[in-house]
Amino acid sequence: MLIPMNSDSDHFLIVITGPTASGKTTLSIEIAQFFSAEILSADSRQFYREMKIGTARPSDEQLSIVPHHFIGHLSISDYYNVSKYESDVLKTLEHLFAGSSFAILTGGSGLYINAVCHGIDELPDSDQSLREQLKDLYQKKGIRILQEKLRELDPEYYKKVDLSNPNRLLRAVEVCLTTGISYSELRKNMRVPRNFRIIKIGLQRDREELNHMINQRVETMMEDGLLEEVKELLPYRHLNALNTVGYKELFDYLDGKYSLAQAVEKIKTNTRRFAKRQMTWFRKDNEIKWFHPDEFEKIVKKVRGER
Question: Residue 273 to residues 35, 58, 246, 252, 279: CA-CA distances in angstroms?
Fold first, then answer.
């Protein structure tokens, strides 16, 4: 199904996506400079100001080259979801398009990119960390806690679902918490028109090259003080924002479960697995045109050709 949008619009949202460590930050800045555009982050981990090193946030120097939005605008204790993000980005785009024909949306959070491009029109894939938290809650407090949460989040679906089925309850609660929209509403599967055109660029490297980039990035993070950042966040480890690669492994190290060297290797391994899951998501989108991040001229030609 094609994205419903205004094909006559002279406003273009250039989406630059791909797996972690594929080179999105550097290329996005180059493309933004070329087209006199500003950048909006679609990396949900970079939203949190306290998580700077472990999320590979653009450096202060990079942020000074081109105006960026949705980086460090939240605290880890803030509640935020993809529905609020969609609304915030559309408002920002309205402002940006008043002064420019182009804007850049970049990041590796496929659910958030889809929300901006399509609206939240389908049930998201499972959020593994949230699913684990809900399962833990179910195991400790029983099915009643899931029933109560669903009744609060989606009273319509609460009346229809088999309240004795914990898997269905878990899925419905997970979707509500992830998207900020009721499960029953999302099942209606409606797309939302956009008044701008969308050009999707995907960045890919061969597996060996990407794995090298991931390993190198983890080593750089450790040199830049990731362990110290994690130590400062230790009192907040229960928050969902921190249940993510690069933080949970070092929390385990601080608990004495692993040596530091083992924790670092686990970060590398889990980051590679995360990159693989990202690519599985992105390959489902046939509108993404794939390039190596060094192919700047080809990417510019692609963007110009869509105008």
Answer: 34, 22, 13, 18, 10
